[in-house]
């Protein structure tokens, strides 16, 4: 059983020396980086080493690999945790025994944000990309924002940074309701596709959380005009200033004339004028993400044309259609997509740039509850958008195993079993993938667990197979 962090916990006036349990994650490492920048002593632990941990060590963080009570030094004042920790985590247990303040990561972030003009980006999909676009646009406009993103922003090489400006941009996590903790000035809702129902219990409760998030914004709420859930949220909003974006005819910021061959190009209609841009990344969904970022920037008062030009400099984020290597004409990509809608968008974008090659998806289902709920939908989008699919076993994350719930739930729902294989052993999966790959193909790993760790095995198998 994973912990249920107390989101109502009191934030200490002084955090002092801060220990992060699970410091290597993109969100946690970003907050730790800002804590170091604020002059805090930062320690932490994680189950494995990573580039994030190496970067934090370079900045002065003291980090242990493996969770152990001995990692929690006697002079620690505050402990920061995520909801992915198990209740028997020894550092967490010791912190409780000592009576130390134990803060969910969102509360630690709230402490850093205090007094800033906050842009919060929430939604079931597109948060990391949209946050990266806003940050990139602000920097191009000459601003120096603080930001914490859920992935490394290409071109900046970091997922977070402390700036001198008044603006603070965050990717806000709706999965456990913690996005409601922030004192948001501008709220961006990318979409409200049903997810995290294990926490909310129902679609209506999930959507109501977004209503509360939007209505809580001090200045402006920007919301998708296209997504069905977002439209229901918009109907329930009571905010005085609502801006919509998307391809709908009545959108405040309307996307049209989309060209998807290669990097996506499109036009945006806003306030009686038309603006055009070509991004550095592919996919219709990224044109729509750019429109949401544009709506935020013009809502903050920036020039429309300069805002879109700034957004167009965005070069992507880590684990979003990220190329890791090409072997014998086969390119290996990794993508964070872990919901059917995200998988469809990622593969549709890949289709626009793969040319005559095929798409081989290597899919790692994420959490038992999501796999059980969406197995049929995953099978449908994988079969529709990929030419071949290799399904790995479930990455349980914070959940206990559920009898009978494996990756086979997805593979068994393909209409044509000739184009899917359930291969739970990673080396066998890598070898199988290499055996079916041809010149020009894209191999794309999909999932928000640790599926990216199979990439070296895929590349190794391709090297052996293709010489």
From TrEMBL:
InterPro entries membership: Mur-like_cat_sf, Mur_ligase_C, Mur_ligase_C_dom_sf, Mur_ligase_cen, Mur_ligase_N, MurCDEF_pg_biosynth, UDP-N-AcMur_Ala_ligase_MurC
Domain named Mur ligase central: residues: 121-296
Name of one Pfam family that matches: Mur_ligase_M
GO annotation terms (biological process): cell division; cell wall organization; peptidoglycan biosynthetic process; regulation of cell shape
Domain of life, source organism: Bacteria
Enzyme class: ligase
All residue ranges annotated as the Mur ligase C-terminal domain in the record: 319-449
GO cellular component: cytoplasm
Task performed by this protein: Cell wall formation.
HAMAP family: MurC
Family: Belongs to the MurCDEF family.
Protein name, entry field: UDP-N-acetylmuramate--L-alanine ligase
UniProt source species: Agromyces fucosus
Taxonomic lineage from the root: Bacteria, Bacillati, Actinomycetota, Actinomycetes, Micrococcales
């Amino acid at each position: 059983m994973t912990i249920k962090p107390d989101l109502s916990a009191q934030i200490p006036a002084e955090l002092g020396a801060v220990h992060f349990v699970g410091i290597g994650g993109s969100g946690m490492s970003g907050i730790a980086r800002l804590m170091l920048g604020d002059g805090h002593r930062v320690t932490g632990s994680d189950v494995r080493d990573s580039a994030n941990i190496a970067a934090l060590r370079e900045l002065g963080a003291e980090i242990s690999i493996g969770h152990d009570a001995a990692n929690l030094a006697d002079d620690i004042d505050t402990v920061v945790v995520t909801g992915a920790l198990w209740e028997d985590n020894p550092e967490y247990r010791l912190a409780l025994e000592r009576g130390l303040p134990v803060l969910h990561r969102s509360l630690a972030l709230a402490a850093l944000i205090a007094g800033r003009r906050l842009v919060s980006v929430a939604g079931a999909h597109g948060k990391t990309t949209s946050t990266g676009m806003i940050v990139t646009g602000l920097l191009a406009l000459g601003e120096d924002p603080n930001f914490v993103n859920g992935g490394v922003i290409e071109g900046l090489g970091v997922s977070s940074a402390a700036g001198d400006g008044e603006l603070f941009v965050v990717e806000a996590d709706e999965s456990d309701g913690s996005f409601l903790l922030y004192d948001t000035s501008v709220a961006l809702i990318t979409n409200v596709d049903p997810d995290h129902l294990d926490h909310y219990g129902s679609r209506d409760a999930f959507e109501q959380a977004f209503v509360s998030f939007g209505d809580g914004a001090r200045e402006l709420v920007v919301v998708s005009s296209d997504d069905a859930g977002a439209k229901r949220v918009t109907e329930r909003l009571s905010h005085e200033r609502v801006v919509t974006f998307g391809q709908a005819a009545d959108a405040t910021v309307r996307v049209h004339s989309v060209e998807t061959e290669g990097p996506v190009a499109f036009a945006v209609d806003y306030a009686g004028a038309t603006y055009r841009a070509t991004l550095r990344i592919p996919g219709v969904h990224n044109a729509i993400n750019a429109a949401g970022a544009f709506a935020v920037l013009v809502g903050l008062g920036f020039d429309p044309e300069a805002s879109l030009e700034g957004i167009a400099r965005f070069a992507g984020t880590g684990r979003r259609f990220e190329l890791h290597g090409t072997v014998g004409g086969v390119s290996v990509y990794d993508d964070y997509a872990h919901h059917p809608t995200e998988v469809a968008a990622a593969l549709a974008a890949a289709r626009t740039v793969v040319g005559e090659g095929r798409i081989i998806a290597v899919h790692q289902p994420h959490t038992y509850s999501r796999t059980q709920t969406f197995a049929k939908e995953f099978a449908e989008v994988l079969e529709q958008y990929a030419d071949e699919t290799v399904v790995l076993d479930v990455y349980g994350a914070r959940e206990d195993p559920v009898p009978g719930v494996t990756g086979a739930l997805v593979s068994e729902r393909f209409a044509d079993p000739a184009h899917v294989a359930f291969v739970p052993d990673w080396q066998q999966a890598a070898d199988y993938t290499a055996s079916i790959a041809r010149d020009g193909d894209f191999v794309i790993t999909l999932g928000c667990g640790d599926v990216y760790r199979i990439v070296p095995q895929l590349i190794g198998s391709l090297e052996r197979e293709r010489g």
